[in-house]
C-alpha cells in the first residue's frame, strides 16, 4: 500500500520549497480559514475544508488522497471532454465539493496546493497509479441501494458527529465534522454525489478513525448509507456541459440523458449490474 513521503524529507529542500509545500498542506487542512466565507485570503468556498473529504490532508490510503495527481495529470477527463491540468482539477473541487468559485490559477494559494500535491506524488512514476490511491471501488450490489436502510445506519454510525440534520459541527470558521447535506454541503455536481464514490469513501474512512485495515461498515451498509445521504437536499450545480459524450457517463451518474435504456432512478440507486453489463456489451459492439 502506497504511503506519503515522510516529513523529514522536506529538510532536503530549499527553504522556499519547504514553505510552499507546508502552506499547501495548511490550505488543504484549513481551507475555510483562508478561503471560506470568512477567510483571511479570499471568500470562495462554502466553509468546508478540503481535508473534510481528503482524509489527513490527502495522505490516507483509500482516503480520497492525492497520491496519483502528479503522475496522471494533465489527462483527458470524459466529464469535461477535454485534457485537464492539475489546477483545473483543483478548481473542480472548489466549484463542486466546496460549492464555491474557482481559485486564481496564478495565485500563491493555487501554486502552494499544487506544490503540496506534487510532493505527495514525488516518488510515483509518471503515468502510474499506486495501490491505495483515491477511493476504493466497491463491488456493486445485486439490488438497489436503500435510503431507508441507510438512514438507520446514519443514525447509528454518523449522526453523533454530523448531527441529526446533516449540518455537521462547526468550530469557529471551520467544520470539525462537515455537513453531509444542506446549503453548506457539496453540490450535486461533486464526485461524492455518485453513490459508488461515496460508498467506497465511507467503507474505509468512516466513522472517523477507521482505515482500510479496520473497516466498520459492510459493503451493503456503505451503499445504503450513500443512498440515504445523497437522497437528501443539497445545492444544485449547472452541469449541462458535463459529459459531452453521453455514452461515457458512468453507470451511477444520476442525471440523464443516457445512451442506455435505464432510468435516472436506476442510475442513481441501482441495481447497477444491468447498466454495467449493457455498457460492456455495447462498447464491444462498436
Task: Please give the largest β-sheet.
Answer: 2 strands, antiparallel
- How would you write the strand order of the largest sheet? 1-2
Helix content: 25-40%
Number of strands: 4
Please state roughly what percent of the residues sit in beta strands, choosing from under 5%, 5-15%, 15-25%, 25-35%, 35-45% or over 45%: under 5%
> End-to-end distance, in Å?
37 Å
Number of helices: 12
Shape type: globular
Strand/helix succession: HHHHEEHHHHEEHHHH
Rg result? 19 Å
As residue ranges, the low-confidence spans are none
User: How does the helix and strand content classify structurally?
Assistant: mainly alpha
Mean pLDDT, as a whole number? 97
Describe the structure.
There is one protein chain. With 286 residues, the chain is mainly alpha-helical. It has helices at residues 15-29, 31-35, 55-58, 69-72, 86-95, 108-120, 147-157, 159-162, 195-203, 219-229, 264-269, 273-284; strands at residues 75-77, 82-84, 169-171, 174-177. The longest helix is centred in the N-terminal third of the chain and has 15 residues, at 15-29. The protein starts with 14 loop residues before the first helix and ends with a helix.
Task: Briefly say what this structure is.
The chain contains 12 helices and 4 strands, in the order ααααββααααββαααα.
